Amino acid sequence: MGSFLSKQMERRRAISTQKKLLCDLKEKDNTDFPGCDHCPEDRKNWMSTLALNKLHVNKIVWPGTHDSATNKIGIPFISRPFARTQSLSIYDQLVMGTRVLDIRVQKDGRVCHGILVSYNVDVVINDVKKFLSETQSEIIILEIRTEFGHDDPPEFDKYLENQLGEFLIHQDDSVFNKTVAELLPKRVICVWKPRKSAQPKHGSSLWSAGYLKDNWMDTDLPETKFESNMKHLSEQQPVTSRKHFYRVENTVTPQADNPVLCVKPVTNRIRPHARLFIKECICRGYGDRLQIYSTDFIDEDFVDACIGLTNARIEGKI
Predict the structure, then answer these.
(1) How many CA atoms lie within 13 A of 59 on its CB side?
(2) What's the rounded mean pLDDT across residues 195-224?
(3) What distance in Å separates the CA atoms of residue 261 and residue 256, rounded to the nearest whole number?
(4) Phi and psi at residue 294, in whole multiples of 5°?
(5) The model scores a pTM over 0.85
(6) What is the CATH number of domain 19-314?
(7) From the CA atom positions of the chain, what is the Rg in Å?
């Protein structure tokens, strides 16, 4: 018992120290970066407020959500706080400005996060289609994967093609160098990541797993995750030189050996430092590598930071 308590006290000190390190860095360097003061006129249609003929796919800083469809996962006040990473519906996330969705499914087609389940994936697809019907120039990256430990939903690729066919941008390396204006009226890059089924092939309407990469570090230590994200980003090529999307997730996650297991208080250790990460990327020479930037519990400030940096790229400020 004494050993357990000692270990927990050590962990709490480590978390406190790491939170202070990030706060001190923020106070020392502030969070100003090219485009940081940009305020979009309309987040729901933010791509259309920029110069679509200059907005290249590979230069967009895509605001994304981590475990996007968890707003109603589990049982309220019982299991939900341990798995919910977003409080908004998929539709509301898109209206706020989210453009990359991370959806996990199990064999029966329900959205899941580990062993906890939520609504059927139809809810996600219907929200996406509703948003697309209300906008004209917004491109979405829809990543759908079979959750670890689960079997693939049967014929799920055909389901996605049937549901989103008219909007799907086909898998093609040339897409990265195209502008949004050149892709329209197609508007969805759908990355399907099955665990056992065959991956989508080149030229198909769905994109394979290799086109959306990240380096996930499972930790609840904020400065550790911050620096891990920075290290892995530094190892990437500039966005103009690669033919895949690379995602950085501004998140930390509860750990089984720590008494704080609810997602929100844990992930809030790093959430306030999204702009600091962008600033540090630029200061350390990696500003041309940031592309998909995701978070838990997305908010307007996070979206605005991504849009501002995107606009700065269009204007040649970075």
Answers:
(1) 24
(2) 96
(3) 7
(4) -115, 160
(5) yes
(6) 3.20.20.190
(7) 19
